[in-house]
UniProtKB/TrEMBL annotation:
<feature type="compositionally biased region" description="Pro residues">
    <location>
        <begin position="240"/>
        <end position="254"/>
    </location>
</feature>
<protein>
    <submittedName>
        <fullName>Expressed protein</fullName>
    </submittedName>
</protein>
<dbReference type="GO" id="GO:0005789">
    <property type="term" value="C:endoplasmic reticulum membrane"/>
</dbReference>
<feature type="compositionally biased region" description="Acidic residues">
    <location>
        <begin position="263"/>
        <end position="273"/>
    </location>
</feature>
<keyword id="KW-0443">Lipid metabolism</keyword>
<keyword id="KW-0472">Membrane</keyword>
<dbReference type="GO" id="GO:0140042">
    <property type="term" value="P:lipid droplet formation"/>
</dbReference>
<dbReference type="Pfam" id="PF06775">
    <property type="entry name" value="Seipin"/>
</dbReference>
<feature type="region of interest" description="Disordered">
    <location>
        <begin position="240"/>
        <end position="326"/>
    </location>
</feature>
<dbReference type="GO" id="GO:0006629">
    <property type="term" value="P:lipid metabolic process"/>
</dbReference>
<keyword id="KW-0256">Endoplasmic reticulum</keyword>
<feature type="compositionally biased region" description="Basic and acidic residues">
    <location>
        <begin position="284"/>
        <end position="301"/>
    </location>
</feature>
<keyword id="KW-1133">Transmembrane helix</keyword>
<feature type="transmembrane region" description="Helical">
    <location>
        <begin position="206"/>
        <end position="233"/>
    </location>
</feature>
<keyword id="KW-0812">Transmembrane</keyword>
<feature type="transmembrane region" description="Helical">
    <location>
        <begin position="22"/>
        <end position="47"/>
    </location>
</feature>
<dbReference type="InterPro" id="IPR009617">
    <property type="entry name" value="Seipin"/>
</dbReference>
Length: 326
């Protein structure tokens, strides 16, 4: 256990200078799957938002005493996208179908709450299949019945009800067959009408979805690179080895102070606590004195008059009196 921990610590210490490069690389590795997932999700979202064609199989009901009918849920539509809706039939090339002549195809579009959006009826006829010289004649024929052109649904969820045949199907024709169309398969088909800029996008839905996913991926990777590339390109860390601990030096002894004489002690104490008079003198000495400029007085010429006598001061008179009294 100790050996494993020492190996792990040694490995971490070895990789520590390269951490500025390894950490961005690890983050980028973890972000790539997330970016790929969201890129695919964005492409799928674009695919779902674009209008595409659709086909719905119809399972006709027979023997109910009415014309063959079927009901089906139309796939989710783009409400503002126009569609061409048609009915594709594959019928046997039998004499009864060919002798039936014209028959009617009715389409009714309703909402899930049973509200009628549109109802339309179109005629159709079964024709014999084409024969080729080198190929045998087909036993079936296809009938395409256009029902709606450039239809804008205005809703996303619609239910289609289709009725095929004639209302006078109780009458017999030929060898006694009923006037009812025999159908092998029926499909309700919706084709996108390409108009304007929306039509340019709906022409190539797969390519546009791939382009959206690629653009999202490149944008995310550019943002990640802009955030992590400056850190990844920086050099390895220069980690200095730890210096050995130094012993604390003993505190320096203060220099010995010599005993000062009393006079110096008194003077220092006086300096430390100056008297108010000394404070006043210091304060006044700091003030700047402005004196008048010096003017020179010329010496007057000696006059021939009697020289002036000097007046004796009071201190000298007091001194002479004290001497006389003694």
């Amino acid at each position: 256990m100790t050996l494993a921990s020492s190996l792990v610590s040694t490995g971490l210490e070895t990789l520590r200078p390269f951490s500025p490069q390894l950490i961005p690389l690890l983050i980028c590795t973890l972000l790539i799957p997330i970016v790929v997932f969201f890129s695919l999700a964005s492409g799928l979202l674009v695919w779902k938002s674009l209008a595409v064609g659709w086909e719905v199989p119809l399972y006709l009901q027979y023997g109910d005493g009415v014309q063959p009918y079927a009901q089906a849920q139309i796939p989710s539509l783009v409400s503002s996208q126009p569609y061409d809706i048609s009915l594709q039939l594959v019928v046997p090339a039998s004499p009864s179908n060919l002798a039936l002549g014209n028959f009617m195809t009715e389409l009714a579009l309703t909402t899930p709450s049973n509200g009628t959006v549109l109802s339309v009826r179109r005629p159709a006829i079964a024709t014999p299949p084409r024969s080729f010289f080198l190929f045998p004649t087909s036993l079936t024929t296809e009938i395409s019945v256009p029902l709606l052109a450039a239809f804008t649904p205005g809703l996303t969820d619609l239910i289609a009800s289709v009725t095929i045949g004639r209302k006078d199907n109780w009458r017999s024709i030929g060898a006694g067959e009923g006037r009812e169309l025999s159908v092998l398969s029926a499909t309700l088909k919706g084709t996108v009408v390409h108009q304007g800029v929306r039509g340019l996008l709906t022409r190539f839905p797969f390519a546009l979805s791939c382009a959206a996913a690629g653009a999202f991926f490149l944008t995310c990777m550019a943002v990640v690179a802009a955030c992590l590339l400056p850190v990844a390109l920086s050099g390895p860390l220069d980690i200095a080895p730890p210096s050995p601990p130094t012993k604390p030096s003993p505190p320096a002894r203060p220099p010995s102070q010599k005993a000062l004489p009393d006079s110096e002690t008194d003077s220092s104490s006086d300096d430390d606590f100056p008297s108010p008079r000394r404070r006043l003198s210091r304060r006044t000495s700091r003030e700047v004195k402005h004196e008048a400029p010096i003017t020179t007085i010329k010496d007057e010429p000696e006059s021939s008059s009697t020289p002036l006598r000097r007046r004796r001061s009071k201190i000298a008179d007091l001194g002479s009196q004290s001497e006389g009294s003694s």
